[in-house]
Amino acid sequence: MPRATVEITPSGQRPDEDPSLAVRNNGGAAPSTEPAPAGRREALLVLSFGGPEGHADVLPFLENVTRGRGIPRERLEEVAEHYHHFGGVSPINEQNKALIAALEKELVAAGVDLPVYWGNRNWAPYVEDTWAQMADDGIEHAYVFPTSAYASFSGCRQYHEDIARARVSTTSPTRPGGPTAEKLPHYFDTPGFVTANADALAAALASLPDDVRDTARLVATAHSIPNAMAAVAGPDGGAYEAELLAAAERVVAEVAPGRSFDLVWQSRSGPPSVPWLEPDVNDHLRALAAAGETAVVLFPVGFISDHLEVIWDLDNEARQTAEELGLAFARAATAGTHPAFVESIRMLLEERRAGGLPRLGTNCAASCCYVQRRPPADTAANSRPPVG
Description:
four-stranded parallel beta sheet
């Protein structure tokens, strides 16, 4: 199932020029500061990365993920083995289904009468197909919850692009582009997200032997991105790292006030010639062991579910590194369907429906997180595609 390839930038306009993606996706107007108009048919869309559902899906899925980057097939086949290790199935799909079920229950309990839809960037259900379904169902406006909590091209702007692609791909004689849309804001600092991660960190610490529990090094992890992408994340640059540090500080403060922690990176997918955020989690574990540390707890605050990059890169590779080094090891769960996290998503939705000044992630400037695409020859060699 190939992903649709369409041009989302109007003719004669640069991608980093006004009107912004946020404005275009909202039908030409900035996300409103006024309450949602009465009677407007609205929906919540969970927008995610997507993942294969069986062995036969793996390579076509990876080809979707890496389209236009010129990554050699042998590199795709190498990453495909990670999926084949788990039966060719990415756990992200079932996790999204579970999150949607929890959200539907949360909305009903709170008296919020909104349908919940699901669309993906790289595999079925494709967001383009979901958008067409929403249009057919008479939905006029969609609030989009992305499965990424942070700023950056891949963490925020690319979701705006997904919405734009879906709208360009949706043809309707009565509603060209289908529903208007606004992306929900960054949620790294919402109380529910912090609580979910704090509860998971506390449980991971409790799983360690008594003699190392109080001295174990706390290590937050997040997906590495190119330094150039990190430099332009957010309105003033550097927002990806700043938001991750802020989230990790809040999580640790709830569990072990005053205790130090490290922020490190995982799942690098670019060629060695391109600088990415460092240190890598495995290199950091080696440095900790060399410094005399005896135990470590990883908490993947950069992710919201235990998808393949978490269970492969941490539960397999990082755990193996720790064992080889003689480090006691524990890995905290992600937010997943923790009730506090689900509640926080509902609160983000209600915040936008009530109006008020749109926060970062909703009304992003045209140039925010913009990264100029590089030619395939500059990115292909030794690249590992990101996985979900």
